[in-house]
Write a structure and sequence with these properties.
- This protein is an alpha/beta fold.
- Helix content is 32%, strand content 28%.
- The protein contains three helices and six strands.
- The strands form two sheets. Strands 1-4-6-5 form a four-stranded mixed sheet, with helices on both faces.
- Strand 5 and strand 6 form a beta hairpin.
- The longest helix is centred in the first third of the chain and has 15 residues.
- The C terminus is likely disordered.
Length: 109
């Protein structure tokens, strides 16, 4: 599951460190848990943000669901953006092992 968001600042500064907005993580967890009720297959998620001066690649496990928090540079050409989005899926071995290969609609022509 992919949830695209936009905020001026992807992370919040709290108690001396940068953190992911907890509300976004809780919302993603609710989506994942709700979706998982209808399937026996693992359900994982990506919180996707446009890059706003800082590239982010984080990975969490929330109650058995793998969740990535990532930024994508939208100032690139469309083919580069498309390739970066596909790389997010390739970087997640769980997604690749379940999908086997990418459907035709996801390949770059």
């Amino acid at each position: 599951m992919i949830d695209a968001k936009f905020y001026k600042d992807v992370l919040v500064h709290s108690h001396g460190s940068d953190k992911v907005k907890s509300g976004n993580l809780y919302q993603m967890l609710a989506y994942l848990q709700h979706t998982a009720k209808g399937t026996r297959a693992p359900v994982d998620g990506i919180l996707l943000y446009p890059m706003n001066g800082r590239s982010i690649r984080l990975h969490y496990n929330l109650l058995g669901h793998d969740v990535q928090i990532v930024t994508v540079d939208l100032s690139q050409s469309w083919p580069a953006i498309h390739a970066e989005l596909l790389d997010l899926l390739v970087d997640d071995p769980a997604i690749v092992s379940r999908a086997g290969s990418f459907p035709e609609a996801m390949t770059l022509n």
